[in-house]
Amino acid sequence: MRDGDLVLFESLAINLHIAGKAGPPLLPAGDDYARALQWTLWAATEAEPHALHWARNAFQLPPEQRDPAQAAAGRAALEPRLAVLEGHLADRPFLLGEGFCIADCNLAGVLYGSWFNGYDFSAAPRVAGWMERCLTRPAALAARRLREG
């Protein structure tokens, strides 16, 4: 993405940059700003590597190259992370409370491929509900139509 002289190539950084231009409530101020960064970094370091490990071996690779044991290993590594998210969502509909923000966008975006391709979120029903809330908002549906056809 190019914004004047600034060129960014990492999607989560692009999202944070755009959210920063939009300001609150998309990118909150104060302590919630730090929390939004925390969940974005958590998405990249804790959730994404394991979701991608599962995805490669569950649906991305050609069927003959998929390794069910590797898909299971990705799932086994992702489940404790989803348990953390499940606990966090116990008393709030979105990551920072009542309203959707860039942290929700970034983490739901990281988990989108798994969600869209049949990952079983039954062990984390709050996460499943949160994913639905994030990915069925009108703006999310419009973006999904572009991606999903």
UniProtKB/TrEMBL annotation:
Top-level taxon of origin: Bacteria
Domain GST C-terminal: 29-149
CDD domains on file: GST_C_8
Coiled-coil regions listed in the entry: none
Protein name as annotated: GST C-terminal domain-containing protein
Upper classification of the organism: Bacteria, Pseudomonadati, Pseudomonadota, Alphaproteobacteria, Acetobacterales
